[in-house]
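Q: I have 198 residues here and want to know how they pack in 3D. Can you give me a structure?
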Amino acid sequence: MTKKHRLFILLSICVVAFVLVYWLWPKNEKLPVLDGIKSVALQNVHGGEYDFKSGKVKLVTFFYTNCPDICPLTMADFKDLQAELKKEKIFASKVELVAISLDPEQDTPSVVKKYAESFGADSSGWKWLRGSLKETKDVTDDLKMQYKKGEGNFLSHSTTMYLIDENNKIRALYDMAYSKNPIDKKKILSDIRYLVNK
């Protein structure tokens, strides 16, 4: 075999290998799976129990009703998201907003219901949840959410929100709202649409 033939064969093998790798290599997904969460069932303050195995896309945030700043600002942004999702006719049917109390001792069902009403929450697709102290700790541990109760009614907590797909896989993380810095609603809506339509 001549040197020219060997070079041609080697070049052909390289081209075939490149084509195979290109077509068979996993494509970079827009929202890769970051982690999975266990099936969680918590009390829905509007009745019954809510199971994360709802088969829907979920935007999950944590709150406590005595929170002076980040929580109410975030809930105000959730109200806007609720309106947008309703306009797109995917609220409740394909997408749910989920708010989980970090302070179930203070946040009784009636307290949380009143809090939800203050944000115009539609309970058909905006789920307000609470659990026992242990259940709350279990779900925060699963989502790697840090929180600690301090003096009085103050509670410090991390400020991550979670976009979870219909298979309970975490697909994106976002920051909660701060003063003069609302949540990135445009990005969140784009990501939600992507998961709903994939």
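Q: Anything worth noting?
A: The CA atoms of residues 40 and 52 lie 5 Å apart. The beta strands are 35-36, 41-44, 49-51, 57-63, 95-101, 126-130, 147-149, 155-157, 160-164, 169-175.
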